[in-house]
Amino acid sequence: MADVLSQGEIDALLSALSTGEMNAEELIKEEHQKKVRAYDFKRALRFSKEQIRSLTRIHENFSRLLTTFFSAQLRTFVQIHVASVDQLPYEEFISSIPKMTILNVFEPVPLNGRILMEVNPNIAYAMLDRLMGGKGTSVNKIDNLTEIETKIMSALFQRTLGSFTEAWSSVVEMEPLLDDIEVNPQFLQMVPPNETVVVISLATNIAETSGMITICLPHMVLEEILPKLSNHYWLQENKKQRSPVEQKQLEKQVRDTSLVVQAELGRSEITIQEFLQLGAGDVIELQQSIHQPLVLTVGGESKYLAQPGKQKSKMAVQVTDVLEEANE
Fold first, then answer.
1. What is the mean pLDDT of each run of 10 residues along the chain (328 residues)?
2. What residues does the Flagellar motor switch protein FliN-like C-terminal domain cover (predicted)?
3. Omega prior to 110 cis, within 30 of 0
């Protein structure tokens, strides 16, 4: 995609053309020349822009679900949104995160491989403080987790997997399991260093504490479901035909739906003055002739013509014709 020029750059370009500093023919010739772009094979882009957009949509939904989950669990104001989605080598991702942090490793059953959720210590310890009855302030602690801290955080992040499953449900039925919690990324080697991973950064605010929750999705984990991350697949899913069982259930629900059927005897118009003077025994003349059929409405729409009568001891109408506009 071509770079978009600002208004100042456009004005400068027009000024250069008008003063002769720049030749329009040279610009046209340069435009037609082949442009070479450097490509780093160590940073192979294995995900298309379409797939990155699909992953962004999925995790925007995940961030909304996480906001609701953490707000309920921590009983405080929590706000989470997708800050960025990038693809880069695993080695570069590991180098970019703090030396001591909270690393949750998940197994995305039935997919192969493992997924990593890195939680910035500021956020992790603020969550821990809230769960222990504190105000949610972060603790300046860079150390291995105690057994109690590990237990509490494991239980908390295990419950976040329900939101992760729900966010991915439109693509794959997943039952992720928390495999391990680490604090030092150097001891964690999930995939080869040059493996391409998608890194989703979730900007997180808990009360007055802010930080990042980062999700690392290796290519090998998503490889078998990559076709499902295209717009073509999403459109096919939307057009998918219902099964015979679903069709029968839908028909049964439609047939069992209640409708209001009304027979209108006629209408009339009177003034407010006449209405205020109405009393017992007064007669209101309708515009409908007794020789004309009644209009039968279904759900407020005119559908049939009918004639009034009696069925045993109750008033009734008999359908005599179907209105043409009803067929349409």
1. 59 68 60 57 69 89 90 87 89 84 87 89 85 74 75 88 88 86 80 87 87 89 82 52 72 83 86 89 85 85 88 88 69
2. 253-323
3. yes
